[in-house]
Amino acid sequence: MKNIPRKELKVSAIENGTVIDHIPSENVFQVVKMLNLKNIGSQITVGINLESKKFGKKGILKVSDIYFEIEEINKIALVAPSATLIEIKDYEVISKKNISIPNEIMKFVKCFNPNCITNHENITTKFNVIKEEGEEVKLHCTYCDKITKKENITFI
Amino acid sequence: MENKSLVSINDYTKEEYQKILDLAEEFEVRTTQKILENYVVATLFFEPSTRTRLSFESAASRLGAKVIGFTDSASTSVKKGESLKDTILTVSKYSDIIVMRHPREGSAKYASEVSPVPIINAGDGSNQHPTQTLLDLYSIRKTQGSLDNKEVAFVGDLKFGRTVHSLVIALCSFNTTFHLVSPVELKLPSYVKKHIKESNLTYYQYTDLSDVIPKVDILYMTRIQRERFSDPIEYEKVKNSYILKNNMLNNSKDNLKILHPLPRVNEITEDVDSNPKAYYFQQAQNGVYVRQALLTTILGAK
Asked: Domain check: are B227 and B180 in the same one?
């Protein structure tokens, strides 16, 4: 007799809303912060260290009754480049999109240059994203012109 | 260019800064022209500077403008904790244009975003100093007849010298060949070299100054500062290798001119000053004409 493994959801399904899947576990709370999820009233399920075939461990967020613009979701690409955006209606997947790093990042990242004016005045930071083949993304500060490398990124 | 801030040399196209240089030539011929009599120029120097501030104030005065401002933020409400934004918004109510030097990188760009009047960046930390670049270009064009196809050597601190970075980038539009002379610790940063490479131009790197002198049209000297070295022994080793003495100029080209953004400490010995190839004090003088051209262009008076 064949033993068919039972497919079981570790995090319960949602009726309507958005699932952000394949978030690196350690960055789930950063994503919550970036999307300002603590200030929305809907039901949110957070999963961390779930098993993943692709990544070993993964994090997941299920946000009921809310749909995001892809541009809004793209800003999490710095902390969750492999994330997938899944939209659910009546328990059915209606769309599945991979996120991509936007050309411009505002507000969430601190400029690595301690002498940059954005670290001394109340200014929204703004970076151009430099994507070069075979290299990690770099952020070019539009104020001081200095580059913040991926390993030096800190979030505000 | 009218009513437009000058934050970085990249704000202007090649044609636009050629136009500024042409106008500067007019001011060199006739320096005193009272064409800005109804204007107030504010000079906000959040950190001290002698040449740049005096040169701007001289330029404004010769055009008949009134100059207001401060020379040190210690005597202003900045010390009481006023934000840069508030300072700029207030001063913009008193003046038609603001010339600003500030110790933080990016401050000029930020000021230009919040200010209702144009901003001229007179240096923002180690970032940009576009009026110095314009006067350097003016000096090269004037002494060499044109900016095209020159052999230009940069000597000394090429890593931290913002005047060097901006001038190298500006010269990339003029088919320049670059000769870069510096200690290994103070080489030109890769982001500047990238501009040279992307323009398909050639650069040579040296650690020895004397080899370069016979080859070049322009020798751009800079000061090497002790505090730039992580290891003081390294500084002691190199500190005398980048000093220009008069006898080193014997085999130089006839058209060679020596530039220096000043202040000089000991990197050019005083016996060079009387050599007709020394051009650094005229270069400083050219700063007044270039700043006159900028003020009148941005204020729309010419």
From this structure: yes
Active site residue B228: no
Q: Helices (DSSP H) in B93-231: which residue ranges?
A: 107-114, 130-144, 162-171, 190-198
Residue B8 lies in a domain: no
Are B177 and B268 in a shared domain? yes
For residue B124, with 0-12 CB atoms within 10 Å meaning exposed, 13-18 middle and 19 or more buried, which class applies? Answer: buried
Q: Is the pLDDT of residue A7 over 80?
A: no
Which of B8, B85, B104 is opposite residue A115, by nearest beta carbon?
B104
Residues of B in contact with A145 (CB under 8 A): 8, 105-106, 127-128
Q: Scan residues 78-137 of B and list those with Cβ closer than 8 Å to A.
A: 83-85, 102-107, 109-110, 124-128
pLDDT tens for B196-211 read: 999 999 999 999 999 8
Does residue B264 have an active-site annotation?
no
Name all domains of chain A by residue range, CATH numbers in brackets. 17-98 (3.30.70.140), 104-155 (2.30.30.20)
Q: What is the least distance, in Å, from the CA of B107 to any CA of chain A?
A: 5
Regarding whether B189 and B99 lie in a shared domain, the answer is no
How far does CA B118 lie from the centroid of its chain? 19
Print the domain residue range for B231.
Answer: 131-284
pTM for the model: 0.86
Q: How far apart are CA A10 and CA B47, in angstroms?
A: 60
Residue B78: name the closest of B70, B48, B40, B94 by CA.
Answer: B70
Longest dimension (CA), chain A: 70
| CATH number of B65's domain | 3.40.50.1370
Closest CA to B171 of B197, B191, B147, B139: B147
Q: Quick one: B121 and B193 in the same domain?
A: no
- ipTM of the complex as predicted: 0.86
Does B265 share its domain with B194? yes
Q: Nearest Cβ partner of A116 from B84, B104, B191?
A: B104
